[in-house]
């Protein structure tokens, strides 16, 4: 039995001192073939320092064996010594049998550094050299997947499926295709692949993607079932709660949706969008005070979320809390974070508080944005009429009557202007 074989036996038995003795003997006395085999085994066990030492010994003896350089580079990358790894790989010439492998190692290295374009260049060069090599096709598909370029990843994954390859490097290719289609908003194709995966084999991410795809296809019952299964198996998966709430709401289960969203807030208390979704569900159940509370909490998390601010403003107007609405919106207008609805809500609030000059100013500011909104046109036209702004009142009434020709009151007022 060689020293290498004895070393591995002791390693498997957990006898580290004996392993170290046999390892040193193997390093100095075993054949080159046995040393290389020992290096491969040690690398697979995670003993990278010893494996690298063996590879380096062999490389000194056989400096033209570029495969040893790629082996060393792999270990250097795992240790975070990227510069040394690139130095080793740069010594491999294009006519070397190991050049293709060096491209793959470099691509992997650059991808870990998020230098995706450089990684792509290396993989595309590798694919030109070996266009039918499945591992290269897979690596390029995985890179595009990581980059979010799903439309480029899909045909590469499909080419592997056509060759009968459904799993590679512990990755389910069918799953990848389904998720890629889903992220590319091709939900019909996505569900065709995702449905092929047994639920028991789905990770939490795949369950979510599949349920989300059902939701986009308005297959609400299927979405609800899978979201609920995900919640039961992984209750800390916070992203599921808004979408489960949305699916339940779509089948008119508002109270259940509300409870689910509240449950989500117990899992994720720092998600302003979850507070917004919960507030909107509360509004549907006429729980206005609770809705305002959720909106205020969401606003505290992200004061710059205009969607939340607008929802708060709409609710304050509905509650006739005009002073608070003015206070809220003016702070955002001062910071130039505007939504046209802000002006309309301010105009209503100032009007109700008999601050007509400010109301007039805000109706004018809102006017360009709501030229096809019948509710705004009539409300603003009536305000301008009372305020004495005949030109703006006439202009908006005319537009309103075009949209609502059966409103006799508005038509009569418009006729009055035309008769003057």
UniProtKB/TrEMBL annotation:
Pfam families: ChAPs, TPR_16, TPR_19. The keyword Protease does not apply. TPR repeats lie at residues 204-237. InterPro entries: CellSynth/LPSAsmb/PSIAsmb, ChAPs, TPR-like_helical_dom_sf, TPR_rpt. GO terms for biological process: vesicle-mediated transport. GO terms for cellular component: cytoplasm; endomembrane system; protein-containing complex. This is TPR repeat protein. Keywords: Repeat, TPR repeat.
């Amino acid at each position: 039995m060689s020293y290498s074989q004895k070393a591995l036996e002791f390693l498997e038995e957990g006898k580290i001192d004996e392993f170290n003795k046999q390892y040193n003997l193997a390093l100095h006395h075993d054949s080159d073939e046995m040393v290389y085999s020992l290096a491969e085994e040690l690398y697979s066990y995670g003993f990278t320092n010893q494996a690298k030492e063996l590879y380096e010994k062999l490389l000194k003896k056989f400096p033209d064996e570029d495969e040893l350089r790629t082996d060393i580079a792999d270990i250097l990358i795992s240790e975070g010594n990227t510069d040394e790894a690139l130095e080793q790989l740069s010594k491999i010439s294009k006519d070397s049998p190991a050049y293709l492998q060096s491209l793959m190692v470099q691509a992997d290295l650059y991808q870990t550094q998020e230098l995706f374009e450089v990684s792509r260049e290396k993989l595309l060069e590798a694919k030109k050299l070996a266009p039918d090599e499945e591992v290269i096709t897979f690596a390029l598909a995985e890179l595009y997947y990581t980059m979010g370029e799903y439309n480029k990843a899909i045909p590469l994954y499909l080419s592997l499926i056509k060759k009968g390859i459904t799993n590679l490097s512990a990755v389910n290719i069918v799953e990848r295709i389904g998720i890629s289609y889903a992220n590319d908003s091709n939900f019909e194709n996505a569900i065709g692949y995702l449905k092929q995966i047994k639920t028991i084999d789905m990770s939490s991410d795949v369950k979510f993607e599949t349920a989300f795809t059902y939701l986009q296809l308005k297959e609400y019952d299927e979405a609800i079932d899978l979201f609920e299964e995900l919640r039961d198996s992984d209750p800390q998966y916070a992203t599921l709660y808004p979408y489960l709430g949305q699916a339940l709401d779509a089948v008119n289960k508002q109270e259940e949706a509300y409870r689910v969203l509240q449950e989500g807030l117990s899992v994720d208390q720092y998600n302003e969008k979850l507070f917004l979704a919960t507030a909107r569900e509360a509004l549907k159940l006429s729980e206005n005070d609770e809705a305002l509370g959720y909106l205020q909490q969401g606003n505290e998390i992200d004061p710059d979320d205009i969607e939340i601010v607008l929802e708060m403003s709409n609710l304050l107007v509905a509650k006739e809390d005009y002073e608070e609405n003015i206070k809220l919106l003016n702070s955002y207008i001062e910071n130039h974070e505007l939504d046209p609805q802000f002006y309309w809500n301010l105009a209503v609030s100032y009007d109700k508080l008999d601050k007509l000059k400010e109301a007039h100013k805000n109706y004018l500011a809102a006017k360009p944005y709501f030229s096809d909104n019948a509710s705004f046109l009539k409300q603003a036209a009536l305000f301008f009429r009372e305020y004495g702004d005949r030109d703006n009142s006439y202009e908006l009434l005319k537009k309103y009557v075009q949209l609502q020709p059966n409103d006799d009151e508005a038509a009569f007022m418009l006729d009055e202007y035309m008769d003057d």
